[in-house]
Specification:
The chain is α/β, with parallel strands linked by helices. The chain has five domains: 107 residues, 3-Layer(aba) Sandwich (Trna Endonuclease, Chain: A, domain 1), CATH 3.40.1350; 98 residues; 115 residues, Trna Endonuclease, Chain: A, domain 1, CATH 3.40.1350; 199 residues, 3-Layer(aba) Sandwich (Rossmann fold); 117 residues, Diaminopimelate Epimerase, Chain A, domain 1 (Roll). It has 23 helices and 26 strands. The strands form five sheets. It has a six-stranded mixed beta sheet, with helices on both faces. It has a six-stranded mixed beta sheet with strand order 21-22-23-24-26-25, sandwiched between helices. Strand 12 and strand 13 form a beta hairpin. The relative contact order is 0.06.
Length: 792
Amino acid sequence: MRSLAVRDPQGLDIDACPGDIRVGHAQFDSGRPVALVAARRPGEDLLGWGILATQHPDVASKELVIAAPFHPPLVERLAARAASLGLSVHLLSVPGLAEASDEISELHSYPDVGRLHPLEGLLSVEQRVIRVLEGASALTSLGGTRRTSAGWVLYVRGKLAAQVRRDGDGVAVSLVLPQKRRIFVTESNFPRWGIELHEMVIQLTQDPRLLDETLGDRERAVEKAAADAGAALTATWIPCSPDGDTCLDWVGVDSKRRAAIGLISAEVGPEQAATLATGQLLVLENRAVWAAGSDGPVQACLSAAPTDPLAAGVVDLLAGETPIEAPRPRLIERAPRPPRPRRERHAASGEETSEGTEPPDSEEGQQRRGRRRPRRRRRGGRGLEASPTDPEAQDESPREGQDEALDDADRPEASAGAVEPTEPEAEPEAPSEVEDPAAETAVGVQAEPELEEEQGETSEDELEDESPDEIRELPRQRRMRAAIVVCNEPESILAALVLARDRRTTTQFVVLPQAELMDYFKGSANDVGENEDLLVVGFTAQPHVRDLLDTAELFRGRLQWFDHHSWPIEDLERLRSTVGRDSILIEPAATPLYCVNQVTERRSRFTDKLIDLSGSRLQDSDMEKWGYRLIELVRRLAESSGDQRPQIGPVLSGKPAELPSAGSIFENEADWVERNDPRMVHFGDHELALFEVPAALDAGEVARRFRGRTGARLSLGSRAGDDLILLGCNDEKRPLNVTGMAEAVDACLSWTHALPGGDRLGRLRIEDRADHPDRIQRVVREIVRQRSVLYG
């Protein structure tokens, strides 16, 4: 302290101050008071306790001195941020404060720690340990890893579960829950400890000692506090100390683009105030990480009022011009306002209410209206295009429960012929108090009870009260009848079959080559009725873009376009402006099924089987019963042209076994599988069949047969000369996340590109695979390394 000309240091007695931190005050030679904080270890939490010390009555100073063996760059940046609070912070490095076991060289261990990039600046073994913990916590959605100035911490259900720090050539993992344990991980023993750490985290999330009501209430309290503040959650459990034993409970962004931080505590004392001060500086410094999109000051939200004068002083200091949000009751806890009485239909003409009818303002009349339930929508109805008596509007396809493509094992246990209802027969009565879920998730929307209206249908009289400016344009209505025109490609036809089963009535199923789409719009498309949608699947706007788009404009409001090809941006924008943005579902993918699945609603077990067929996941029994027949149908349709509605009747009715027999389909694939064996890759409890087939064979069917013959759960196959590789898995009760694995590999390897398909089949395109045959092995290594993703 002599180097700073500080004299007469004295300690301060502050409740709940950690034992390794000393807080005091002194004076400069000039007589200015100054707050002091000293510790035998560095840390960002020293700033929080220092800010708390400046509010002590014996100090009353805006200057602060923090002494530690060294100060990481993060602490230096936070000290600079403290200037926004009107404080002057002096960081004093005193190596002699370190304990004998500490190494001062750790000052340079984390040059970029303040950026909080998940995997930046880490050794390879530490990087893999962190990824194991991240994968396990992401699998359960009950935890997460966070970085501190001293390393990494793992939170599970809001509790500190593990600490990770470098230790020589390895990594020291200190488990805190359920019992303290220390593990030293190196390059040599990582294959063993990597698997055990993953299992430890999974078991920890299911530990009954963590499944108490207190933790559940705490998680709900976080959502409640963010909703009361009108903020959308962006992060939870932000560590405010090197060890992670203190943390902010939540961070969010409100409607004014202000960052909001919150603490959930029964009382706000010195410890909570110090945590709040450190957390505010952390969010200001790393706004792009914890509160992306926010600007301006950080707003603090507390679950209780400060109970200590020091804490109250810190709260006032942090507030500045932005007041601290006091705790507010939830919407469900407020007294409900009585429903607004409806106007009588003849009130405007001066007619009085007849005898025997309760007036609208009477108490009994309000109670009756409060018990009235909204009118239930007619089953299958979605508009006014058809009525129950309209013969053309009758459902031509049977219900999903009548599908005969399912095995007996797939049917419900109650009875083989029972039909599962898609909607409840009666709706339960609405409770008197309804908690609006939108109030918890919408950014910046604070529901007020004074604005609440009675839920239900709006009467004609209430519609008359609305001004024209309040009437919004209704979204695009979906009609029950549809005409489908599909490109003559097998993947497009299969996607169109899924789309056809989603509609009540399919009037046309036209298969055309790309060159004949313009002729269809000028001819047969004019026969599509006004009460029918026109669904275009798998086509681009080539070759006559301008003429085709001008003709498509005639069907605006009824046309919906699905495609998986890459469009020039100018053609795509013109199509959206011509037909309507909500009617265009065009995204680069492997099959139009990816876009079709975004709008389908009438899903059934057989429709899911169709998607499994696209991903080469069906079992042999299903393939023998109807799978080969349907594939043969798709191939025949791809070679034909015109309306094929009669040919797809068994598919629409859910009876694909009635299709004509397939014959010798996939005969070449079967012969090749008999003559060749795949390379088997064993990792963890998985087996992966690796192979490459000739260009003329179907890699998906070969993969399905190899998995069945070898018992492998995974397959990675490709065709000779093709840059596309397929990562497939079996049809299981809980299938492996192969699409997530493809995305994870894409994120790690710059020369791989994941392609979505909508059929639960992982697809990766490898750049210049012919010139780099070793890249397939690097993909396999990445799959083995990130195997925890398969459980996501």
